[in-house]
Amino acid sequence: MAEPFKNYIKAVGKGHKAGRYLTQLEAEDAMAQMLSGQATPEQLGALLMLLRVREESVEELAGFLTACRSAVKDEFKALDCVDLDLGCYAGKRRHLPWFVLAVVALAQSGVRVMMHGTAEPESKRLYLKQVFGELGWPIASNAQQVQTHIAQQGFAYVDLQDLHPQLDELIQLRALFGLRSCTNTLARMLNPTGAKNSFHGVFHKEFDARHAEVAAQLKDNNVSCIRGEGGETEVNPERECVMHIARAGQLATVQLPIMLEKWQIKPRELSSVELADFWRLSTAEQQAQNPYGYAAVIATLSSFLILIEKLDFESAQQKALSVWQARQHFPE
Questions:
Q1: Is the pTM of this model over 0.85?
Q2: How far apart are CA 323 and CA 320, in angstroms?
């Protein structure tokens, strides 16, 4: 029998001295009640905001994530056509989503990729759903379409609303709270199809390591998290990057060096069509016209290969360059 939800609010909200962290099982039950509608809107908001102020423990996040994964639509759980899962929830504000080009090149090399995300209108960011629309790419709304898109072009995107509407509803509560909650973290870590590899990007310090620790707690197979550009699954080539990796309960890190010595001027506006134009340029033209974009693509592609093939950075970078050189026509 489920614990009365108010007891979880009480446990977390009593303060520094009397309050406590939830156990993993308690957290799983609490999230299950939130997702099923057993918790009232007032209770739900109280717990999420208390956790926002105090921050969640690894055990709490592991419990929350277990409940979220259980509530993924069964049709997506049954998919076995995904090699790499990307939770893309931050959106882009400073730079174009160059990681999309890394995904396309990787897919053309034979790695099957599924991306999922959502949009928060008030944030005024460029989200993947808009990117796909501007590029004329199909957006999957069910598991069969994911399978079809991957068979046709090697990658697919599905909105969180279609694969896990309850979790998306919790994320959209930001419009009421004015703050994000741990649900954004959980969506990134969701890996709804149980893909062999899962890659996350975060913005805040220490959250990258925490993602890996949660993955290790749950014995997830191959998971990596970075402090990505704008919080996305993209390496910022202007800074050093640390990949936090969890493989079946074991933790490790891989250091990626700075790829650009000089900081580049960010574009005044973000147009997804520029990604297609960049793809069609020669390597020399790419490096000359947009050194940031080129470095971001190669660095991000390298990070994907480090996770998937267990390569060191130098080997991954060499393979990334080869994969990029071998890219074919831009998907229409």
A1: yes
A2: 5
